[in-house]
Design brief:
single chain; alpha/beta; Carbamate kinase; 7-stranded mixed sheet; 9 helices; disordered C terminus; binds uridine 5'-triphosphate
């Protein structure tokens, strides 16, 4: 199966967690050795945000701030690439990522261009490589009805459709501080692509493995026609 794994910078890089990066490298290798093709996208975490802050203090325009964050994400992509024993470069475009995938059956990239997030990069890659599954390894257990940090009655959803998730985002739009678990631009691409996405807690890479094995974990986001039971 062709899988896209989006590893949150919040998970492996905030602060940098070499033990976890090592565990992810082992997981990616295991997946490839068991016959999967693995497209990985990593973010830049707090270091990327620190560079955004610094460049903003230097009055650099937003595009320049984004480029710095992209370079930081590429640095983490390179770290994982080298740990995997692959070439010492990181793809800078979807085409380069696909070439690497064809050659090594595994590819790791960071950001693509200013004005987007690595969620969107992962969604584009899923679309272009016709992947069957996108996994987002993040710092929450899945999608909640409300911000779980602020609301004790927030309920984790086991399943949701893209359509209902978009509605949930609209409802929460004006509530300051709600962390959008999936970038709305990425959501739109994935909805059109009819790909299944699973959001899991990335602090334990086993959760990614479980999602691939179709075990009950995190939140499954499905295109409308593929969902048998709805919980939201
Ligand atoms: P992300 O918010 O996607 O990274 O990108 P992350 O660290 O993995 O985030 P979590 O773990 O989901 O919280 C960080 C920033 O990098 C720039 C944007 O400024 C974005 O907010 N970026 C990233 C781009 O400009 N283009 C890209 O293709 C990717």
């Amino acid at each position: 199966m062709r899988i896209v794994i989006r590893i949150g910078g919040s998970v492996i890089a905030s602060p940098v967690n070499p033990r976890l990066i090592n565990q992810y490298s082992k997981l990616l290798e295991r997946l490839r050795n068991s016959g999967h093709e693995v497209v990985t996208v990593v973010g830049g975490g707090t270091l990327a945000r620190e560079f955004i802050r610094i460049s903003s203090q230097l009055d650099l325009v937003e595009e320049a701030q984004d480029w710095l964050a992209i370079h930081v994400s590429r640095l983490f992509a390179l770290l994982l690439t080298l740990k995997l024993g692959l070439d010492n470069t990181v793809p800078h475009s979807i085409e380069e990522a696909i070439k690497r995938l064809e050659k090594d059956r595994i590819t790791v990239m960071g950001g693509l261009k200013p004005g987007m997030t690595t969620d969107t990069v992962a969604a584009y890659l899923a679309q272009k490589t016709e992947a069957q599954l996108l996994l987002k390894a993040t710092n929450q257990d899945g999608v909640y009805t409300k911000d779980p940090v602020k609301h004790k009655d927030a309920k984790k959803l086991d399943n949701i459709t893209y359509h209902k998730l978009a509605k949930l985002f609209e409802q929460n739009h004006h509530k300051a501080g709600i962390h959008q678990i999936l970038d709305p631009v990425a959501l739109e691409i994935l909805q059109k692509t009819h790909i299944k996405t699973v959001i899991v807690n990335g602090y334990d890479p086993q959760n990614v493995q479980k999602a691939i094995e179709n075990q009950k974990i995190g939140t499954v986001i499905s295109p409308e026609q593929n969902l048998n039971k709805s919980t939201a």
